[in-house]
User: Which sequence fits this backbone?
């Protein structure tokens, strides 16, 4: 039964699809935390991305503009978050939770106010699924990599780009240094606050892109609380992936696999709910060092006081 | 007494500002804030039924809010109150339907005790020990345990050991001997309210009148000085999470035994996160938790009414909640700023 | 010889203290210039002013005839000032090359890994340093990490090098290597300022030395033509000391016996085999410059840090492996160096702070329940006896002044009637009135036949209060002398590691 499931290409295709809305906020979190700011607001930012994506898409009749609008809003709320935590030094976890709760309420409220009881209008343009000629013809791999929503491909490209950016560019080096030892970075002449803003805002944009995928990629509507906890799962993926882009993708795939498998296996064999627990349990193990050391950037979560 | 009044200022101001912002939003979307808030208020408190339901809604918030508050006092962030709530619920329901022949007093007590122990262990063992020995951040560990608990409950109910015969994923009903009676008939208000109030008094007593509370608070405020005072810091971290979990588990137990009477297969109760807002708003003061819980319960019960009467979506209440958190976090900022400035002058005064 | 750095009349003050008072000195090209002084002399402040971390109130600094006006370290770096801090500003998770080029990376976007490694390799060769540019800084020894700091400075094309207490954390072997590097740099014409309190190093390495005391530059002399005694004189001076009249006292039997203890912090041994005794009715003063192991010694005696080896005996019993609470129970009281960090819970009320040691005992608690009245009475009593202001026992510790906070700690510890009180920097940051109060209390304990171990960075305090004085340097006890028979200069010499020929 299990083997049958594993050899079904649609299982793996679903894995990739379900991993995407986790990988994107995980990637976003990586940027934020690499610069030294703990960001648990991904859940809320995803919702913002999802809702505003739908909103802009509907009003401009263009899903791509919807995507752009969503990313903009994500950047906006991240800037607010960055101001309160980086400039004012407020508790990053508390403010993060605040963003989540606020975003959940705001998006639900606005959905009702703007679209009324009918919810998202059916004619809202969605983002297209792509079929890549050539790849989609390869047996087994074809359906997995060859025909996914455009955001999935975007995600893959962003993972590669992020890796390059963080580990092979000067700016990436600076961002990482600010997350490890902001005082050293300061004495080397870097602007710690500006770099942290950058990390948080990039993080917010990526997270809201994850929300856009849910609202405009998988479907073409916004549902209340549609992020469904993925923002928190993304946190786990980021930790499990040791705060790296490829690691986050890998962990996200693991979570996506667990979700896809549980659907496929419904009705027989190992209970799907037990399978779904696994990624969370693994994250805890990663944190406790039992499955490899998972150490965050050294100055993660500590507000920088230049007058120390 | 003066300190209590001082402590009430910030939450009060935060609520007032948030309510005003809510009014502005209502005006902007073409609604009348007065009718809306009026409907909210009467929906929450306007009749015996409404009041009872509001109070009933407040019960799980009070208990899980107490749990989060006590963790905060020890310097810990228990985000996993939701999962601990589920564990408590599962345990309570299980005892409720599977143990026969006990008089109500014993049956209820047994359910509650088992629920509290199970939830306490859920928080204390993995997140607690991980924090105490490896320094693993409890925000992540409690959150992960929360998801595991939710999946566990799904497992139990979806063709699992706790599912009743038939097709609906729900547990059997608990026996009458395990049921908490209602204070007001035909409402959701059970004697769980008394339990909640008693819990509140006990937590207050524990924190401020016992040596254990002294130790927990010392660990939360300054673990170095606490260590120097001979207090075993890792032990008390684990203990704090354990107690915190117990209270969240109690919330689940009371909800099951008093209101639901069986376990349903749902994703979240919503109490876990609201408990965090409650604790923050109450500044971790046990009696403040009661007030804050009633406030949020009122928002929730009244919100439905507000939507019916004035057309303002009930979700606005969540917006108000979010704004409140922001404001409460900001108050901390002002204090932190004052401290930093003070420290600067002190530190620079001693420069060589 | 050309003057590279000219410092004229620099004054920098903070609330309540003038850290730099019309400081004047200059550094020639190709010389190694030492800045010598005790703690609190103003050396660090001066360096931070030069480096742009502080803005001076008045005065000027010229680097190669160019007036400097720094608002930030970035500008200082660009002008050519390179500073190697005492506490390294390195990022352990990154490689040597990455640390060196950070902030001044070549290229626009792409990080040129291979090129940077090569650049750093060449740079290291030029500075005659042996280092692997691809190693992770976190894996390097302290000596090698210091080299990375120096490389950083030269990557930015520094024209002047400032080293702040460079040998503080090095092993003797590493010190030798550093000296060689410094001498090679000097031969290349690069001026070096190094801050130190170690007389023997200053004598050995520097060409000229400027001595600072109490914020002023006392004198600049040619190292060759001066003696350690002269330098020590200049350093400690002959100022009027806060004299406390001490009645003569005959000390009793030893209460505390420390035998050969070794204490490690990280990979360094901070205390390298120290032995001494403290007697009843005596104040034993431990003098030394900050960072020489005295505070680790104190933490080992109080039980906050473990001893690697050695024995500690108290009242005849071996307490080497006793817990903190065990030692407290046996009769040791402790006023910690950092009152806000270790001594008080700032957000607790005074009542709660007063009972921090004994909160679980009667009359404050019974069967785990705290008893309000006895606690309040106790707090009131102590506040009166020790003149804690304001007299509000429910005020938060945070809202008291430093002096009053210290009084709370003192009151708490002394009221327990300990046999031994260990006081670490008890009057740091306090006003004269508070200082006198605390000194008197310490003397009272002495009168009452108790023992006091006083650890202080203030030589005046040590000299006026102690019966016997021990001097610690680099983790070793240099000498133990009766206070009446030793001069300030002698203590100064001992504190900087110079062995005295004659015994006191």
Assistant:
């Amino acid at each position: 039964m299990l083997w049958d499931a594993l050899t079904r290409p649609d299982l793996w295709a679903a894995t990739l699809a379900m991993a995407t809305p986790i990988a994107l906020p995980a990637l976003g979190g990586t940027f934020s935390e690499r610069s030294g700011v703990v960001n648990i607001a991904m859940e809320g930012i995803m919702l913002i991305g999802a809702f505003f994506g739908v909103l802009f898409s509907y009003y401009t009749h263009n899903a791509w503009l919807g995507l752009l609008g969503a990313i903009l809003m994500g950047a906006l709320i991240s800037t607010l978050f960055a101001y309160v935590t980086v400039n004012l030094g407020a508790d990053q976890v508390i403010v993060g939770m605040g963003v989540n709760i606020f975003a959940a309420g705001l998006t639900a409220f606005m959905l009702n106010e703007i679209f009324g009881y009918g919810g998202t209008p059916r004619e809202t343009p969605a983002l297209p699924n792509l079929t890549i000629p050539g790849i989609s013809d390869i047996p087994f791999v074809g359906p997995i990599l060859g025909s996914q929503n455009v955001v999935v491909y975007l995600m893959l490209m962003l993972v590669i780009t992020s890796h390059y950016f963080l580990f092979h560019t000067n700016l990436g080096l600076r961002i990482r240094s600010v997350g490890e030892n902001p005082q050293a970075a300061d004495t080397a002449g870097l602007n710690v606050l500006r770099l942290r803003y950058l990390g948080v805002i990039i993080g917010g944009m990526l997270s809201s892109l994850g929300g856009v995928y849910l609202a405009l990629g998988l479907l073409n509507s916004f549902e209340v609380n549609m992020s469904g906890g993925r923002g928190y799962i993304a946190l786990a993926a980021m930790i499990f992936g040791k705060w790296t882009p490829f690691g986050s993708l890998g962990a996200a795939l693991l979570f996506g696999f667990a979700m896809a498998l549980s659907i496929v296996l419904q009705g027989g064999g190992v209970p799907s709910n037990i399978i779904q627990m696994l990624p969370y349990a693994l994250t805890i193990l990663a944190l406790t060092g039992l499955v490899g050391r998972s150490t965050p950037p050294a100055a993660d979560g500590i507000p920088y006081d230049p007058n120390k | 007494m003066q300190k209590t009044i001082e402590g009430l200022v910030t939450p009060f101001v935060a609520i007032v500002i948030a309510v005003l912002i809510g009014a502005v939003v209502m005006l902007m979307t073409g609604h009348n804030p007065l009718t809306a808030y009026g409907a909210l208020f009467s929906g929450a408190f306007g009749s015996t039924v409404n009041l009872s339901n509001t109070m009933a809604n407040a019960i799980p918030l009070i208990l899980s809010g107490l749990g989060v508050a006590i963790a905060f006092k020890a310097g810990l962030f228990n985000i996993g109150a939701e999962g601990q709530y589920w564990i408590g619920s599962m345990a309570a329901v299980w005892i409720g339907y599977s143990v026969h022949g006990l008089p109500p007093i014993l049956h209820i007590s047994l359910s509650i005790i088992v629920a509290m122990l199970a939830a306490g262990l859920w928080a204390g063992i993995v997140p607690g020990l991980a924090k105490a020995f490896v320094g693993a951040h409890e925000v992540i560990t409690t959150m992960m345990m929360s998801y595991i608990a939710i999946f566990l409950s799904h497992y139990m109910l979806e063709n699992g050991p706790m599912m009743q015969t038939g097709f609906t994923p729900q547990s059997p009903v608990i026996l009458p001997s395990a049921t908490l009676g209602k204070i007001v008939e035909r409402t959701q208000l059970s004697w769980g309210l008394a339990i909640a109030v008693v819990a509140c008094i006990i937590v207050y007593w524990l924190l401020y009148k016992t040596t254990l509370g002294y130790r927990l608070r010392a660990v939360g405020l300054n673990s170095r000085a606490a260590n120097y005072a001979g207090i075993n810091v890792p032990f008390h971290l684990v203990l704090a999470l354990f107690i915190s979990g117990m209270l969240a588990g109690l919330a689940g137990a009371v909800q099951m035994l008093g209101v639901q009477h069986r376990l349903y297969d749902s994703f979240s109760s919503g109490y876990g996160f609201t408990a965090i807002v409650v604790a923050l708003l109450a500044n971790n003061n046990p009696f403040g938790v009661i007030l804050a819980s009633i406030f949020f319960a009122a928002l929730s019960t009244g919100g439905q009414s507000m939507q019916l009467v004035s057309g303002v979506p009930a979700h606005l209440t969540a917006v108000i909640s979010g704004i409140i958190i922001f404001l409460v976090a900001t108050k901390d900022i002002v204090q932190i700023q004052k401290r930093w400035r003070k420290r600067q002058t002190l530190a620079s005064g001693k420069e060589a | 010889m050309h003057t590279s750095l000219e410092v004229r009349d620099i004054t920098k003050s903070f609330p309540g203290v003038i850290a730099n008072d019309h400081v004047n000195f200059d550094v020639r090209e190709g010389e190694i210039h030492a800045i010598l002084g005790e703690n609190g002399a103003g050396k660090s402040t001066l360096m931070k002013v030069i480096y742009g971390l502080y803005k001076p109130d008045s005065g000027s600094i010229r680097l190669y005839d160019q007036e400097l006006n720094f608002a930030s370290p970035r500008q200082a770096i660009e002008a050519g000032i390179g500073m190697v801090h005492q506490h390294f500003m390195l990022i352990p998770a990154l490689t040597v090359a990455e640390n060196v080029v950070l902030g001044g990376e070549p290229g626009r976007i792409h990080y040129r890994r291979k090129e940077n490694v090569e650049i750093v390799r060449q740079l290291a060769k030029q500075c005659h340093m042996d280092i692997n540019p691809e190693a992770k800084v976190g894996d390097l020894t302290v000596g090698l990490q210091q080299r990375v700091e120096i490389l950083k400075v030269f990557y930015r094309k520094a024209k002047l090098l400032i080293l702040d207490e460079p040998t503080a954390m090095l092993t003797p072997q590493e010190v030798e290597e550093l000296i060689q590097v410094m001498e090679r740099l000097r031969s290349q014409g690069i001026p070096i300022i190094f801050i130190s309190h170690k007389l023997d190093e200053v004598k050995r390495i520097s060409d000229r030395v400027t001595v600072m005391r109490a914020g002023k530059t006392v004198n600049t002399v040619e190292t060759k033509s001066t003696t350690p005694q002269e330098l020590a004189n200049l350093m400690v001076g002959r100022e009027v000391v806060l004299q406390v009249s001490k009645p003569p006292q005959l000390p009793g039997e030893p209460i505390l016996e420390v035998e050969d203890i070794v204490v490690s912090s990280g990979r360094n041994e901070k205390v390298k085999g120290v032995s001494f005794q403290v007697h009843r009715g005596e104040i034993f003063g431990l003098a030394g410059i900050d960072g020489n192991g005295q505070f680790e010694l104190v933490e080992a005696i109080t039980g906050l840090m473990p001893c690697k080896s050695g024995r500690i005996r108290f009242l005849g019993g071996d307490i080497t492996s006793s817990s903190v609470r065990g030692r407290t129970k046996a009769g040791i009281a402790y006023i910690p160096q950092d009152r806000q960090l270790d001594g008080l819970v700032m957000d607790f009320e005074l009542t709660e702070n007063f009972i921090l040691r004994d909160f679980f005992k009667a009359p404050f608690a019974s069967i785990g329940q705290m008893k309000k009245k006895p606690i309040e009475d106790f707090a009131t009593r102590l506040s009166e006896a020790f003149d804690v202001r304001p007299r509000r026992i429910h005020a938060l510790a945070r809202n008291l002044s430093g002096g009053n906070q210290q009084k709370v700690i003192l009151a708490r510890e002394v009221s327990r009637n300990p046999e031994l009180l260990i006081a670490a920097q008890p009057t740091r940051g306090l006003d004269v009135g508070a200082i006198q109060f605390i000194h008197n209390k310490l003397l009272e304990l002495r009168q009452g036949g108790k023992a006091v171990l006083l650890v202080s960075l203030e030589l005046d305090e040590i000299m006026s209060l102690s019966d016997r004085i021990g001097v610690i340097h680099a983790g070793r006890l240099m000498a133990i002398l009766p206070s009446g028979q030793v001069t300030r200069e002698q203590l100064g010499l001992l504190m900087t590691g110079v062995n005295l020929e004659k015994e006191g």
User: Anything to note?
Assistant: Chain C has four domains: 1-80+159-237, 93-154, 252-331+419-504, 343-417. DSSP finds 17 helices and 22 strands in chain C. Residues 172-187 of chain C form the longest helix (16 residues).
